[in-house]
Specification:
Blueprint: H1 15-30, H2 36-68, H3 74-117, E1 145-153, H4 161-169, E2 176-187, E3 190-200, H5 206-213, E4 222-230
Antiparallel strand pairs: 1-3, 1-4, 2-3
Helix pairs in contact: 1-2, 2-3
């Protein structure tokens, strides 16, 4: 008789179980994303806790109805039913969250797969094109030596071609070797000096060579590349 008064007390004896279930749920939500399997495991743990709490509630209801049915605990029963319904709604919401996380992980995996396929390591090297000016051919990048024939045009027919050739050969650069030369008539008594050279394109560029030769403004009018061959 001394313990029958507890039947009429509105005390939530299993509250700590719901608190643990809620804590585990938010720990799973706020923890590092480790894939859909981890979310499913967390959801399963919460569902088991809810089912265990529901079973304990039903046992408590069965015990209270047997010991104090005459007292009419209808209010307590209604409150417990409301709480169970609330837990079921929360369960459905949790399932929706898990499904959303699964879809988000699937989308991320698909995007990562696309990014990996489009990375530079998986793409073939595209051919590079270079814009060239008229009467000039620019050599492609290559560490091997290449031979070039340059046309150095003088200003008039009174230009000392020997002095012109001496000026051109005075250009000394690392990776540059001068070869044979000859005078080619242009017209009206004007001739141009055609001289061969071997250059290593990772050390000497044709633009650099042209800039050095055109510094002799008294003898050189223009510099053109007549031919270019890779060795």
């Amino acid at each position: 008789m001394a313990t029958n008064f507890l039947v009429h007390e509105k005390i939530w004896f299993d509250k700590f179980k719901y608190d643990d279930a809620e804590r585990k749920f938010y720990e799973q939500m706020n923890g590092p994303a480790a894939g859909s399997s981890r979310q499913e495991n967390g959801a399963s743990v919460i569902l088991r806790d809810i089912a265990r709490a529901r079973e304990n509630i039903q046992k408590s209801l069965a015990g209270s109805s047997g010991s104090g049915a005459s007292s009419g605990p209808g209010g307590d029963h209604s409150e417990l039913v409301t709480r169970i319904a609330s837990l079921e709604v929360e369960n459905q919401s949790l399932r929706g969250v898990v499904q959303d996380l699964q879809r988000a992980v699937s989308k991320l995996e698909a995007r990562l797969s696309v990014l990996e396929r489009s990375s530079p390591a998986h793409r073939a090297a595209a051919p590079q094109t270079q814009h060239v000016s008229p009467m000039r051919q620019v050599e492609p990048p290559n560490k091997k030596p290449a031979t070039a024939a340059e046309d150095d045009e003088d200003w008039d027919d009174e230009t000392d071609m020997a002095q012109l050739e001496a000026c051109v050969r005075s250009v000394q650069l690392d990776g540059l070797t001068w070869g044979g030369s000859k005078l080619v008539p242009v017209g009206y008594g004007i001739r141009k000096l055609q001289i061969q050279c071997v250059v290593e394109d990772d050390k000497v560029g044709t633009d650099m060579l042209e800039e050095e030769i055109t510094k002799f403004e008294e003898h050189v009018q223009s510099v053109d590349i007549a031919a270019f061959n890779k060795i």
